[in-house]
Amino acid sequence: MAETSTFDRTLETLRPFIPARFRSDIPVVPVVRMSGVIGISTPLKPGLTVASVARSLDRAFSTSKACAVALAINSPGGSAAQSNLIHRRIRQLADEKKIPVIAFIEDVGASGGYMIACAADEIVCDGSSIVGSIGVVGGSFGFHRLIEKIGVERRLYTSGEHKAMLDPFLPENPEDVKRLKSIQSEIHQSFIALVKDRRAGKLNGPEDELFSGEYWTGNRAKQLGLVDSIGDLRATLRERYGDKVRTPLIAERGLFGRRTQGVIAQFDGLLGGAGLAEDAISALEARAIWARYGL
After folding, report:
1. Which of the following is catalytic: 111, 129, 133, 282?
2. Which CATH superfamily is domain 20-133+214-291 in?
3. Catalytic (active site) residue 75
4. 212-267 pLDDT, tens per residue?
5. Which of 50, 59, 119, 245 has a CA-to-CA distance to 141 between 20 and 30 Å?
């Protein structure tokens, strides 16, 4: 018994000198950062997709003795499919590992960004964060009058009645618009069902307001039950797990960091003429999505 006591005292004496990552008595909450437009790649900045975050999520949920997993979210949305895939991946891992998830919305968690936040068991945001935009949006341009004016003849060959639906170089067809709106409505209803399921018993507002596509500040979002509390990642985790809580940022390993592959791919595209035009368009699309929220 005396030997055990001596060992314990020795261990306690040495404990302050043991690196925090090797100490079992210090809580660990791995952090996965999810920032950017979902599914849209821009020059030097790959889009946020399930493929780009899968490895980081796997590592975070596999962290030894993790008390929870934190998601640092700063996204205005983007691809509905990729948003849902990321959401589902988070829930699959959380249910499998039995680890709670806390989402921290920074500047914006809107549309698909909010869908990802709903994968968490708890959502925290700043009072000035932009939250919500539970809806679906799509847009394009019409160039048919421009090409007529400059004398360009459009030649398009298709097999399938609706293969050229909403082609920007053809006049807008009301039937095509109707079909698009039907698809958008279906996606919107799925989004609404997801929010109702994940925020069950917490939502506090009329549905025609909550699901209108409108967005709010974090303070108003809390009143509506879209988020659970106002705060930030560091203060919240220190309050909950103690001042010594470790919050390692989980990122993909690589020679030049997490986004190396995406950067190289973008440079490869920039070296080709078509790649430059595509990247310019992607950058404009991403800029337009951020601009919807005044950012």
Report:
1. 111
2. 2-enoyl-CoA Hydratase; Chain A, domain 1 (3.90.226.10)
3. no
4. 999 999 999 999 999 999 999 999 999 999 999 999 999 865 444 444 434 333 33
5. 50
